[in-house]
Amino acid sequence: LTDVGKAFNQQSRHARAAVVRRGVPALAVNYADLVAQPAEHAMAVAEFLGRRERTEVMQACVQKELYTARA
């Protein structure tokens, strides 16, 4: 990883730990997984938000052609 990647990972770990310490409900979503399987992740987000009736709208927002994986 680059220094930027390492810093990002460290900040992500700190943020997740802070959320857990404070008891704040949170849902982590991996962007690459979301792009690959929008229906599955839209359902998880909708359930987390308590808005299950809107999953098709969430799925429609995912534009696979705009995602480029980084090596």
Q: Which percent range fits the helix content?
A: 55-70%
Order of helices and strands: HHHH
| Uncertain residue ranges | none
Specify Rg, calculated over alpha carbons.
Answer: 15 Å
Distance between the terminal alpha carbons, to the nearest Å? Answer: 10 Å
**Arithmetic mean of pLDDT:** 90
What is the multimeric organization of the chains shown?
A: single chain
Question: How big a fraction of the residues is strand?
Answer: under 5%
Tally of helical runs: 4
Structural class: mainly alpha
Q: What does this protein structure show overall?
A:
- This protein is mainly alpha-helical and 71 residues long.
- It has four helices and no strands.
- The relative contact order is 0.11.
Search tags:
single chain; 71 residues; mainly alpha; 4 helices; flat
What topology does this entry show?
Layout (H helix, E strand, L loop, with lengths): L2 H20 L8 H6 L1 H12 L5 H7 L10
Helix pairs in contact: 3-4
